Amino acid sequence: MRNRPLIFISFYFVLSTYQVQGQEHAKNVQEYKALKKRVYSFTKLDFITSEGEFNESICTLLIPDLKEDSPPYVAIYYKRDNSEWFTESLYRKRLRFNFKDGVLKLDQSNFWDWFEIAEIKIVVIY
User: Where are the domains of the chain?
Assistant: First the structure.
């Protein structure tokens, strides 16, 4: 019983001197210094057709210098009337898209409440 504080102190000393090192993945990392950013802005007039349907043409974005071996970062920002901008991550929704030969195709399910939205911004970083 008397050695109990000594055991805790020595255990604490061992843990405090232990160095934690993360794994190094130097061979798996590529840095891209010259990233490009595009922001596409759409209002209700752009993404709702005259028939009141969703305009699927905003789902296809032509980006000629988009390379297939370098996946882009895509974020969609929504704005309702009298509201702040928000992203799909507020609803824990996964963004769905595919890209090939300079064409980025967004899935229509990304625009799940398009009838309540006033503006949409699509940000692509590649």
Answer: 35-125
